[in-house]
Design brief:
With 297 residues, this protein is an alpha/beta fold. The chain contains eleven helices and six strands. The longest helix is centred in the C-terminal third of the chain and has 32 residues. The radius of gyration is 21 Å and the shape is globular. The structure holds guanosine-5',3'-tetraphosphate. The site of guanosine-5',3'-tetraphosphate (G4P) has 15 residues, from α5.
């Protein structure tokens, strides 16, 4: 982690701007926790990607919130809006003037957590298929330079991928959207988390998708209802939780339930405070362990 941090710092010092791709459904959990600290005043464009799957009202809210940060601009994007990708080079040159027709190219570091749609966007910008590099945590080893039109070079650094999983809620939200591999968590746990969220935040979408007049009070009742409706039953007539959980998650991920955003800016502010506390407690524990180790020796 420390090595990656040092490498990122070095790259940031050499580029003109940073393009951070966020998942519009989880702009907080998909952000890179290191970048905010390391970028200083360097201009940053945050792309709210997969916005076709996100709640448009929330996407606008997030854009306003993120742009309050110094030298941050945002673009809401999705693969079905290829023309909108042209806005990106223009915005890069607006934030870093003087390089559009110059001898020197504008260098932009591009990063995003796995599955956020980074390769898809790079291919659109480059207008060709660029081979995907691995996501191993070795920043410089995997670095790739991609020249795109408008005198811009993208520096793709796949090793800079550190999802915000110290925060439990972020772990679930990354799993719901498919950023964390299925094997990392139980489907049923993810589905319970998702069902609870949908009952409170998107009840109307649930009613419409699953044809329910009155929603149940609890997530387990909701899963049982969906399970019985979708035929996820054992021979004894019991609902197969694992099966119905997979259905709910797949329908959520593919947008079949509707346009949904799982995080709000207020949630980010609150959870960041908790995250700082967790990190401080971790540091204290680590220091005390080190002291005890030295004493023993
Ligand atoms: P990555 O390089 O960041 O890892 O992501 P990549 O571009 O490979 O995209 C990951 C998946 O997300 C792909 O689906 C891709 O089609 C999809 N995707 C990319 N941009 C968008 C978007 O704007 N909207 C939507 N709805 N989907 C997008 P896939 O190949 O089917 O993979 P998977 O989803 O089955 O993992």
């Amino acid at each position: 982690m420390y090595k990656a941090q040092k490498e990122i710092k070095k790259i940031i010092s050499k580029v003109d701007l940073i393009i951070e791709i966020l998942d519009a459904r989880i702009p907080f959990s998909s952000e890179n926790p290191m970048i905010a600290d390391l970028r200083g005043d360097k201009p940053c464009i945050k792309i709210l990607n997969k916005s076709d799957l996100a709640d448009p009202v929330m996407t606008e809210k997030w854009q306003n919130y993120l742009e309050k940060e110094k030298s941050v601009k945002t673009i809401a994007f999705s693969v079905d809006q290829k023309n909108k990708a042209k806005l990106l080079p223009d915005l890069c040159h607006k934030l870093v003037p003087g390089k559009k027709n110059g001898v020197k190219k504008l260098h932009a570091m591009i990063l995003g957590i796995p599955n956020v749609g980074k390769s898809t966007l790079i291919n659109i910008l480059a207008d060709r298929i660029i081979a995907k590099t691995g996501n191993e945590p070795a920043v410089t080893k995997n670095q790739q330079r991609i020249n795109i039109d408008n005198n811009i070079t993208l520096i793709d650094t796949p090793g800079v991928l550190w999802p915000n999983i110290e925060n439990k809620g972020s772990g679930y939200r990354l799993a719901i959207t498919g950023a964390i591999k299925d094997t990392a968590m139980e489907y049923t746990d993810i589905a319970f988390f998702a069902a609870e969220f949908l009952l409170t935040d998107y009840p109307d979408l649930l009613k419409k998708r699953f044809d329910i007049d009155t929603l149940p009070d609890t997530e387990i009742e909701l899963l049982e209802y969906i399970g019985s409706k979708r035929g996820c039953l054992t021979s004894g007539g019991r609902v197969e939780l694992d099966k119905v959980s997979k259905i709910l998650i797949n329908e959520l991920r593919s947008g079949q339930i509707g346009e949904i955003t799982f995080e709000t800016p207020e949630m980010r502010d609150k959870e960041l405070v908790e995250l700082i506390k967790i990190r401080e407690e971790k540091t204290v524990k680590k220091e005390s362990r080190k002291r005890n180790w030295k004493k023993k020796k």
